[in-house]
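Lab notebook, design round three. We kept the backbone fixed and only want residue identities now. Task for the bench partner: fill in a sequence for the structure below.
Input structure tokens:
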């Protein structure tokens, strides 16, 4: 990361307003990475660290999986990872970022080629986004959560790890649909949805239902007129 000189923090600050909607990202098959149109692109690698879980939350909702995301310095939610340096290979860069941002013990849980999920191309940013998913035991995931606060970038780039609620509550909105209504960096929301289906953690129908869910409108007096102290 660097100060871009205009008082804005971030490598791609001048193009960060591009790539705001899912149609700005195109899936690129692995075999095409070396095509001329992708040469000279900025590359980034991000990773979903997760554990499958049948745990019943409050004795009601099946957890399905514990998935780690993070709250970033810019207020957006994203996956740990980041830009790959010039001359660095994707996996070395991604493992470096996982250590810097969330203090993952990458000797114990290195991201490897077998964890590869998908790559998206954002033409307006000339950015290739490589995405991986690593399944680890639940107790190891809890250790990562505890250790993340000691990461080099904690408190600056990373403001904390998050777990995703993958259930939907009785009102049809709270839980996963409400989580999806947050602001997401890059195409991390698409990466999440793609990977949930890819790993059969959720079906396409379940994902569509959550994406299309709308909040129950509250029309009570206390929702009028802002903050009451
Ligand atoms: O989790 C993510 N998934 C997809 N794209 C992301 C994610 N996090 C950041 N990005 C995008 O990747 C690029 C690099 O951002 P990031 O802040 O991760 O890099 P850095 O930590 O190396 O500075 C930005 O264009 C940003 O929009």
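Proposed sequence:
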């Amino acid at each position: 990361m660097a100060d871009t000189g205009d008082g804005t923090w971030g490598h791609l600050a001048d193009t960060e307003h591009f790539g705001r909607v899912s149609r700005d990202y195109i899936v690129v098959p692995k075999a095409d990475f070396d095509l001329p149109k992708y040469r000279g692109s900025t590359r980034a690698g991000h990773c979903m660290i997760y554990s499958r879980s049948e745990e019943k939350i409050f004795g009601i909702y099946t957890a399905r999986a514990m998935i780690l995301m993070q709250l970033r310095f810019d207020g957006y939610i994203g996956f740990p990872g980041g830009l790959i340096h010039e001359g660095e290979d994707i996996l070395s860069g991604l493992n470096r970022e996982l250590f810097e941002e969330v203090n993952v013990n990458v000797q114990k849980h290195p991201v490897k080629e077998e964890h590869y999920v998908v790559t998206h191309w954002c033409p307006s940013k000339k950015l290739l986004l490589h995405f991986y998913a690593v399944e680890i035991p639940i107790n190891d995931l809890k250790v990562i959560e505890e250790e993340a606060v000691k990461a080099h970038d904690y408190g600056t780039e990373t403001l904390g790890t998050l777990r995703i609620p993958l259930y939907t509550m009785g009102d049809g909105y709270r839980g996963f649909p409400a989580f999806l209504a947050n602001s997401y960096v890059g195409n991390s929301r698409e990466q999440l949805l793609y990977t949930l289906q890819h790993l059969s953690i959720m079906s396409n129908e379940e994902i569509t239902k959550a994406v299309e869910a709308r909040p129950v409108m509250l029309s009570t007096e206390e929702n009028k007129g802002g903050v009451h102290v």
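Keep this in mind before ordering anything: The mean pLDDT is 90.
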